[in-house]
Amino acid sequence: MAEELTISTSKDKAERYETLIPQIEALVAGEKNLTANLANIAAALRFGMDFFWVGFYLVDEDELVLGPFQGPIACTRIARGKGVCGKAWAENKVLVVPDVDQFPGHIACSSASRSEIVLPAVKGDAVALMLDVDSDKLNDFDSIDERYLRQVMRIIESFI
Ligand code: SME
Fold first, then answer.
1. Using a 6 Å CB cutoff, which residues line ligand 1?
2. Would you write out the chain's pLDDT as a tens digit for each of its 160 residues?
3. Ligand 1 probe mutation, 95, 107, 114, 130, most atoms within 8 A of CB
């Protein structure tokens, strides 16, 4: 495992993801511990992509429970169907929210959060956890983030 993350300073978001994703693969290679891997992925995404908040919510019976994250403190539990994370979980789909104030039922963990992307990881035929990324800028996530963060979810699905 590399001891230091190589961070691209490119203005091109796709290039930054291209630099980061192989490092994420290397970070988790040979390590089976879920907490350790999610913690390192959260840190790699936070510093590699300069995200405001990035973290995981893990499915625990009928709720999501906060897992490893980087950024300001966050809500610990989210009910199925509630907020962006709960809805993306219930519908097993990626949600991109350009303006959180326009999303009915958005759960504001931080008043600084303006836009958000949430993606599921599936184990067997059920969603096991969600990746949530928040930005303090409006409309900060697009199809490039979705494409590369989907790749991150496939990496996660390889060890959960
Ligand atoms: N905004 C999320 C809650 C989690 S925080 O953003 C970290 C939601 O509505 O599900």
1. 53, 74-75, 78, 83-86, 106-107, 109, 113, 116, 132, 134
2. 667 999 999 889 999 999 999 999 999 998 999 999 999 999 999 999 999 999 999 999 999 999 999 999 999 999 999 999 999 999 999 999 999 999 999 999 888 999 999 999 999 999 999 999 999 999 999 999 999 999 999 999 999 9
3. 107
pTM of the model: 0.96
**Gap between the Cα atoms of 11 and 56, Å rounded:** 26
Displacement of CA 22 from its chain's centroid (Å):
17
Check: CB of residue 99 under 8 Å from CB of residue 139. yes
Domains of the chain: 13-157 (3.30.450.40)
Q: Which two tokens stand for residue 16?
A: 């930054």
